[in-house]
Every structure is written in C-alpha cells, then in structure tokens.
Amino acid sequence: MSKTLYERIGGEPAVDAAVTIFYRKVLTDQRVSHFFDNTDIDKQIAKQKAFFTMAFGGPNSYTGQDMRNAHAGMVRTGLNEEHFNAVMEHLGATLTELNVPGDLIAEAAAIAESTRNDVLGR
After folding, report:
1. CA angle 12, 4, 44 (to 5 degrees)
2. Torsion of CA 104, 6, 118, 92, to 10 degrees
3. Is-contact 118 75, C-beta < 8 A?
4. Residue 54 and residue 28: Cα distance in Å, rounded?
5. Could you say which DSSP state residue 33 is in?
6. What is the Cα–Cα distance from 61 to 59, expressed in whole angstroms?
7. Quick count: other Cβ atoms within 10 Å of Cβ 49?
8. How far apart are CA 30 and CA 112, in angstroms?
9. Is the dihedral of CA 91, 59, 17, 74 positive or negative?
10. H/E segment holding residue 117
11. Residues 16-28: b if buried by 16+ CB within 10 A, e if exposed
C-alpha cells in the first residue's frame, strides 16, 4: 500500500513545523493578516494542524467546520481570489523552506487548491 502525503512529508512533526511557519508568514503579510485580528491564534493553529493532517491523509481528528462555513465571515468582509492566492503562496514557501520535494509540494498545493471554491463561498 502506498504511503499518504502525510506520511511522505514526515507525519506529525512535519505538519506541526509547517503550520507554525505558515502562520508566521500569514500573520506578517498585510494582504491577509487582518483576517486574523480577532482570532485566537493558538486555537487556529491547532485546528489547522488537524485539518492538514486529515487533508494529507493522516489520522482524522479534525472537528472544525467545513471550509465554506469556516470562511463565510471572511468572505463577507472581502476575502477574495487575491487573498486565497497569497495563502497558497505562503503554503508553497513554507513547504519549500522545510525542504519538501517539489512533487510533494505540488500534491499539497492541489489539495489546498481543491478548497478554493468553498473557501471563497462559490
């Protein structure tokens, strides 16, 4: 049986490192940081770790909302393609910084890209 993306990128330690670096990038980017002004970042990081773990084929402990409902408030305050693209940019940069091979970055990006319509409420 072939390994999941979660296993191939390094499992829990890799996801934990990626989410920490990812939010460091997102929270310092003026294009998107304002969406997190009233967010409990520790809670958000925990949710994101659980979501990436599940989305990348690891153990499913994600109990958050679906993508459409989780981002509906942000859509109402202007979340758009530009913002989604910025987040995708940070995901790719994060995985590159962690020396994840390009084929695995592409696989992770495809998974993230598959959420675009729901995240943007379309």
Report:
1. 40
2. -40
3. no
4. 26
5. G
6. 6
7. 19
8. 21
9. positive
10. helix 116-119
11. eebbebbbebbbe
Mean pLDDT by 10 residues, the chain (122 residues): 92 96 97 95 93 92 85 94 97 96 96 94 94
**Tokens coding 21:** 């670096």
Whole-Å CA distances, 122 to 31, 35, 57, 72: 21, 19, 25, 10
Contact by Cβ (8 Å): 91, 22: yes
- What angle, rounded to 10 degrees, do the helices at 41-55 and 11-27 form? 130
What's this model's pTM, rounded to 2 decimal places?
Answer: 0.90
Residues 46 and 98: beta-carbon distance below 8 Å: no
